[in-house]
Amino acid sequence: MDTPNRTQKKVTLLVMAAGMGSRYGGIKQIDGFGPSGETIMDYSLFDAVRAGFTKVVFIVRDEILETVKEKFLPKLQGKVEVEFVVQSIDKLIPPTYDITERTKPWGTGHALLCAKDVIQEPFVAINADDFYGKEAFASVANYFKNDTTGAHAMVGFTLSNVLSEHGSVSRGVGEQDAEGYLQSVVERTTIVQEQGKVISKEAAGDRVLDPSAPTSMNFWGFHPSVFALASSMFEDFLKENNQNLKSEFYIPLIVNELIHRGQGKVKVLGGGNIWFGVTYKEDKEEVSSKIRALIEKGEYPSKLW
User: Fold this and answer.
1) Which terminus in the chain has less CB density within 10 A, N or C?
2) What is the pTM of this model?
3) CATH 3.40.1380.10, domain 12-148+215-258+274-296, yes or no
4) DSSP per-residue string spanning the chain
């Protein structure tokens, strides 16, 4: 592994690995995709360590906690601090709410809040089952190293690079101002490619999107000040949605409110040059093939650790 270029400030990686993966038919967070059985998470951890991150916080479900510890603690020992936090259905939920029927996690915003007691420094929240590439980690580490504004950050992935040839996708499409700060993130739930255009299928009709628009793939950089707003918003969310068994509290909701209230800015960063993820079991071979291609190019060793 390359010698880490340590950032002057401490920076934590928050890995959100508590999703259920129902469409995958297994626990995709700990499934092997690399030539030596590496998970997608392994590559993110490898990239974070060499970019200079100083701590890793895993957000997991209780049933995979011990497996994740066994799999990743030996690899990270001596390289970064490590914390494990369980995202349970009842965590941070007031006892006045009856949630006995709920089985679905509360979403990425809730995952972020579950970690608030173990993070006091700038941090980066990512999905465990998405492959982001080393440039994304280097970009956000460099940002926090040199930032003097106190702004949060989002690594922007070019919309045309994160679409699917196999059908529609749901993406958080961003708009930014002339200075490169995010103005909003809008979740477009049905994006397709048709006749050379990127189109969002909506109730009001087709909306043509800018193929170069900065898109959120859940690669967020936050200062810990975000927790206060997120906590307040989650309280309001629960009042309205505690009986809705499928409702989820997403990070983009927090980001949009942050911008709307003028409580912070979000800088759109470069580095979103590569992304791939796994949703269905059929995606596994394609993801493994893309990893092999990166290894052949010298981006990663064939055995990471």
Assistant:
1) N
2) 0.90
3) no
4) -PPP---SS--EEEEEE----TTTTS-GGG---STTS--HHHHHHHHHHHHT--EEEEEE-GGGHHHHHHHHHHHHTTTSEEEEEE--TTTT--TTS--TT--S---HHHHHHHTGGG--S-EEEEETTEE--HHHHHHHHHHHHH--S--EEEEEEEGGGS--SSS-EEEEEEEE-TTSBEEEEEEEEEEEEETTEEEEEETTEEEEE-TT-EEESSEEEE-TTHHHHHHHHHHHHHHHHTT-TT----HHHHHHHHHHTTS--EEEEEEE---EE--SGGGHHHHHHHHHHHHHTTSS-SS--
